């Protein structure tokens, strides 16, 4: 679970807005994520997928079917520069192939593929490696949002021939009809939607070759920056993960990264993060793993995570999760 990539706040903002519309205290959905209200005011802020998934888990705990509704709200305009590049593509096929070139900008946690059997095309999402409890949510969110993107690009609904999902049929499966409107299969080999092959060649109403060329180049550059940041953040996380029992501090970590503490702090700020936020995130993930194993005393878990006092660990875990370690272990 600790191979987080960077992503935007788009999905988190959609979740908060949806619950606010229903009169709920949406800020509670940020519990344990390390995302604060101040972060929401920065449209270019970056968070990790683990932070996003924590907010998703909080939402699913309140409404199991929320992925379907969120997917219907994830329009092509939510993808910033990539959205403009897709809209200005010549055909639907060109747009989809471009989107699949930049999974970091698309924000997906699946491997996306176009599978063409000559008669119909499957838009497939597979290789899910995140929280098993969120597998159905993420599959629903992904497939419905991809359908919405296609509808937006075409300027009309894309008729689907079929949809399939890896997870078992949920109790709320009748709600799928409103989002996908096609025959459904569950416990399949992947998550996918199918449509007639001819739609790949369909011209897009907002196609513009000059705009498309410029936007595609900007996407290429942004993707390089984005993936470079991911690799850099991944290295930091690996270093910290090996030192949870004796965290090096900002100065020590900067030395290990061969940079100054000022440079390290500035880069982390640009990523919408901080040394303490990353350390807390890793400690929280490791604490949940150790508590789930149910054989290590809580005081030993505290020591393993670098807390000098068990009480300090208890307070920290309460802040991260909203419950005491003993309650989490259940």
TrEMBL record:
Q: What is this protein called?
A: AraC family transcriptional regulator
Q: Please, which domain of life does this record's source organism belong to?
A: Bacteria
One cellular component term (GO) for this entry is: cytosol
The keyword Hydrolase belongs to this UniProt entry's keyword annotation: no
State the organism's lineage. Answer: Bacteria, Pseudomonadati, Pseudomonadota, Gammaproteobacteria, Pseudomonadales
Please list the coiled coil stretches: none
Give the HTH araC/xylS-type domain ranges: 234-330
Gene Ontology MF annotations: DNA-binding transcription factor activity; transcription cis-regulatory region binding
Going by the UniProt record, its keywords in alphabetical order are:
DNA-binding, Transcription, Transcription regulation
Membrane-spanning regions, if any? none
InterPro entries per UniProt = AraC-type_N, Homeodomain-like_sf, HTH_AraC
Organism of origin: Pseudomonas parafulva
Q: Signal peptide span per the entry?
A: none
Whether DNA-binding counts among this entry's keywords is: yes
Tell me which PANTHER family the record gives: HTH-TYPE TRANSCRIPTIONAL REGULATOR GADX, HTH-TYPE TRANSCRIPTIONAL REGULATOR VQSM
Q: Name one Pfam family in it.
A: HTH_18
Alphabetized SMART domains for the sequence = HTH_ARAC
């Amino acid at each position: 679970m600790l191979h987080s990539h960077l992503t935007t706040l788009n999905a988190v903002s959609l979740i908060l807005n949806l619950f606010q519309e229903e009169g709920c205290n949406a800020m509670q959905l940020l519990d344990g994520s390390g995302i604060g209200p101040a972060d929401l005011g920065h449209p270019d802020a970056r968070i990790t997928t683990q932070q996003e998934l924590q907010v998703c888990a909080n939402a699913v705990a309140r409404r199991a079917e929320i992925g379907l509704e969120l997917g219907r709200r994830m329009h092509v305009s939510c993808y910033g520069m990539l959205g403009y590049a897709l809209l200005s593509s010549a055909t639907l096929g060109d747009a989809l192939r471009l989107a699949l070139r930049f999974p970091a900008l698309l924000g997906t946690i699946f491997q996306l593929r176009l599978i063409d059997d000559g008669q119909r095309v499957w838009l497939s999402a597979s290789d899910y490696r995140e929280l098993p409890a969120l597998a159905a949510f993420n599959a629903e969110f992904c497939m419905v949002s991809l359908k919405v993107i296609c509808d937006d690009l075409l300027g009309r609904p894309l008729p689907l021939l079929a949809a399939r999902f890896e997870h078992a049929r949920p109790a709320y499966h009748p709600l799928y009809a409103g989002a996908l409107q096609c025959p459904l299969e569950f416990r399949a080999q992947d998550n996918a939607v199918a449509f007639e092959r001819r739609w790949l060649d369909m011209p897009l109403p907002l196609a513009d070759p000059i705009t498309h060329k410029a936007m595609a180049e900007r996407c290429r550059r942004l993707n390089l920056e984005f993936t470079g940041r991911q690799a850099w953040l991944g290295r930091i996380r690996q270093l910290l993960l090996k030192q949870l029992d004796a965290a090096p501090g900002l100065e020590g970590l900067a030395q290990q990264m061969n940079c100054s503490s000022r440079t390290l702090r500035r880069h982390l700020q640009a990523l919408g993060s901080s040394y303490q936020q990353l350390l807390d995130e890793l400690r929280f993930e490791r604490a949940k793993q150790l508590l789930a194993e149910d054989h290590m005393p809580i005081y030993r878990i505290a020591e393993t995570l670098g807390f000098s006092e068990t009480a300090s660990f208890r307070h920290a875990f309460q802040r991260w999760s909203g419950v005491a370690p003993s309650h989490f272990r259940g």
